[in-house]
Amino acid sequence: MTPQKNKGLRLLTAVLVVILILSRLLLLSADPPSWMPGAWITDEGWWGDSARGLYFFGDPFADDFGTSFLLCPGYTWSLLLLFQSLGIGIFQLRLISALSGILLVLGLSSFVGKKVSPRLVPFALLLGILDPCLFGHSRVALLEVPQALWLLLALLPLLPEKPRRWGPFCSGVCLAIAFSIKPTAVTFGFLPIGMVLLLRLLRSRSAVREILFFGLGAALLLGPLLLFHILPHWDRFAATLASETATGKDQLLDKLLYFGKFFNSTDDDGKFLLLWSAKASPAILILSWLGLLSLARRRDQFLRSDSSQPRKRPFPFLRSLGTMELGILAFVFFSFVAYHSERDQAHRRLALLVPGLALLGVHWALEKKKRRDVPLGMLSLLALSLPLLLAFKGLALPRLLPLLFPEAVRQDLRTSSNLAGLLTLLLWPLLLLPLLRWRSFFQGLATFALEKGGKLLLALALLLQAGLLATTCTNPRFDLVKEQTRLKEWVQAGETVLGDYAATLFFPIPVRTVRRVLPTAFSAPPPNLDVFERLQPRYLCENVIHGYLFYPPRYADIEKKHRFSSLTDVRIGPYRGETPRFLIRILERIR
To answer: How confident is the model at residue 539 (pLDDT cuts 50, 70, 90)?
Structure first.
């Protein structure tokens, strides 16, 4: 590449980095995109509640809730430090997710540039900037994006064939930090990192030392966390594990089948979804699979034909790949992150699992390995079989599940959903058998993916992904009963046409912001109870509670029994009938 092209590439990369930072930090106190459930605004308050209690009262259980302090101490103490440094507010509350989202996209883009080609860094950055799932979750105070960042940092030191001396130790420390942010790191961290360590142990006995260093790094943080944080609050911690709301609504069986839940979700009618936000998602998944398979085949051919030749570059065979085939790598990284379903917020959780699998699949498909390794790399096959797994789940499970678990389906749809997810996960390894048994057939598919027709299909996949981004970013939902669009809000505020366009493109947000809604609510007379009920109390509760949690300290002198004795009631079904009176009491006291 000529110096002039290098300069242009660096300039384009710098511009995209600036856009990435602005897209995550600009108007951060505004509401999240309209495709996100409104309940997530309330969840921001739940996860930050203990940090607020420590900030105002020095007590994480000041509101008799404390879930975030018990389950997410790392996030709670980080948020408290941020509050003490910058004050308390919605911007500060979401800043951790925003910064983590920036670093996550930069980290994945750097990995693509280092492992594949520097030319792909702008392309990877652009997909990371526009991906609706990464964009939305980086602008809300939820725990998934910070956790994903530390899981990525835990995975990367283990990927080199010969990791640095302290790489496994640092990986263990990062995994422990991810666990302290949210315990689901046990699920999301164990699968990819456990695969890496297991393969290292199978290939070399010297990997025992790496595993010991990894365990030492994890124990360095998890040990004190257990001794000084969990055990002193064991009664509350155990009750929280049994049920997040301590009401017995969430059964222990759901916790045991927690992992299976991420591979399954249902809509309100009980129909099983494909865990993707676009109707064309099966095509995108299958074409991504073909692209990865073609790269794996290229790698296999290269190792067979040129294994004795010295190599100056890590991946010389990539010189023969076209721009489209290289682009599919970055496409896989960021389109897989867009996984999400329509129920139980499972999409933000599944979004953390799949990037690690895709990253491992790409790495093991490209990394230099010896002849005695499994053909194409077992981890590559795991990643490549994921689209087939989801296709099987979407097509077969709605018919198989009533036959296999008729009683569970009849009695409890949620439990049956978890059973379906667990069943899907157990069937996943079976999909590897056709890949290994009929390898020539799949190599034929890979050959097709490398031909002109295959390249056109790959281009179509990228076009479909662009369409998904466009429809997500430019079509806010209109609900005249509950909400207005942020575009209308900007027009009423007298903003420019350019500002209106920017609001529609990046912030398709209904007017639920604390900045706009709550000051009016707090200054107005207590609303009539009948009006509250007609306007769907649950929706109004989410707004008032969210602002109440993080409003200025002048509201902090409300008595504890009024502050949160009924706050948990908002999330418990039997008490929702009392919610309007509870809100009226709050508004009367705050006035």
So the answer is: very low
The amino acid that residue 258 corresponds to is: Y
Confirm if 296 and 290 have CB atoms less than 8 A apart.
no
Average pLDDT, the chain: 58
Q: Which 8-state DSSP code applies to residue 316?
A: G
- Could you give the 3-state DSSP secondary structure of residue 59? coil
Tokens of residue 131, six digits = 């991906």
Cα gap 2→380, rounded to integer Å: 34
Please give the C-alpha separations between residue 183 and each of 51, 66, 73, 231, 352, in angstroms, as whole numbers: 18, 15, 10, 16, 13
Residue pair 425/406 in contact by the 8 Å Cβ criterion:
no
Which helix (DSSP H) or strand (DSSP E) does residue 305 occupy?
helix 281-306
Summarised one tens digit per residue, pLDDT across range 18-60 is 999 998 888 787 666 655 655 566 677 778 878 877 887 788 8
Give the end-to-end CA distance of the chain in Å, rounded to a whole number: 66
| HSE, side-chain direction, 13 A CA sphere, residue 12 | 15
Q: How far is CA 119 from CA 60, 122, 123, 293, in A?
A: 48, 7, 8, 22
Q: How far is residue 93's CA from residue 45's CA, in Å, rounded to a whole number?
A: 9
Q: What is the DSSP string of 222-277?
A: HHHHIIIIIGGGHHHHHHHHH-TTSSS-S-HHHHHTHHHHTT--B-TT-PBP-S-S
At position 54, the amino acid (one-letter code) is L
Helix residue spans in 307-427 (DSSP H): 323-337, 346-366, 378-384, 386-404, 406-411, 413-427
User: Which of 337, 335, 294 is closest to 318 using CA atoms?
Assistant: 294
- The residues that bridge with 266 in the sheet, in sequence order, are 272
